Amino acid sequence: MDSVTQAALGAAVAGAVAGRKCTPKVLLAGAALGTLPDLDVLISYGDPVSDMVKHRGFSHSLFVLIPFSFLLSWLWQAWRPTRFSFTHLWLLVAACLVTHPLLDSFTAYGTQLFWPINAPIAIPSLFIIDPLYTVPLLLVLLASLLWRDRIAKLCTAGLAVSSLYIVWSVSAMSVIDSRVEQQLAGTPLAGQPVFITPTPFNTVLWRVVVKGENHYFEGLSSILDGDTEIDFLQKTLGAWPEQLGSEHQQMLERFAGGFIKYEQRQSQIVASVLRMGMGEQLAFQFALAENSNGWTSIEPVRVESPRGRLAQIPNLWLRLLGNQDIDANLCHVSECPQQSVPLASR
């Protein structure tokens, strides 16, 4: 999640754990602890693919954060004794640190909760920025500064609301998953890999990607849709040259769970991660090979994806409300170059 959300979560957790001993300084410390794991973005792993794949690695691991919380609590007590017992202080520090990667695990990026074990956790039920999750936390923190005798209760209430929102997001994703399963049943795509994630800033409108043999199918489904049939757009997956080995290509495949598309752009092969983004606006794209008398692997180069247009915002809102004349590229179906076709014909 974004830094503002993580800081708000850390502060609210600190307020709830500190109880009657909480002060504005404790909230500030909690906010700092809540953003600490993301400092790994300052580490360069040598190339853009490694930087992406290894983000949310060791600094988000429970096997690292829990021992680190003991060390940090001991140093804190030794440097500046507090009103907290060591156990109470450790619980506060550990809770602020650990809730950061736990929240991150509900996004499409995924989190290495058990690093060095390579088993990333991703339950993609939240967009990386979601005001409906963040705003309640910010409101209770603001209220805590006004009613300092109620900080713990306010923070606990804020955490309860935000946690219920996560429960809602997982439930909504389950509804969309059931729709997709029912629609794919009896078609050539039954049993194929499916990826479901919310569209920007909400948990009502969901993006669905189904991976076939040579194509992938992208569609949108809103909880408010009257007709639960999803209009999918068929797009080409492309392929990586079989004879061409590339460690970075394999890293991307593992990271994305196979949800990668390959395109030849001029003299290069560009790999795009389908898990993050929408339509042609995919957040992570890398040039991995070039053609110079035959394909050869190159050092990865980050390719900028097209930026979203402000004109798409009204379409996003209309589609969220259940207008099914808007497709996965967030344009009116009648205006789009690619038209959806029934799954049975694919």
From TrEMBL:
InterPro entries: Transcription_regulator (IPR053170), YdjM-like (IPR007404). Pfam families: YdjM. Keywords: Membrane, Transmembrane, Transmembrane helix. The chain crosses the membrane at residues 58-76, 88-109, 121-147, 154-176. Signal peptide: none annotated. This is Membrane-bound metal-dependent hydrolase.
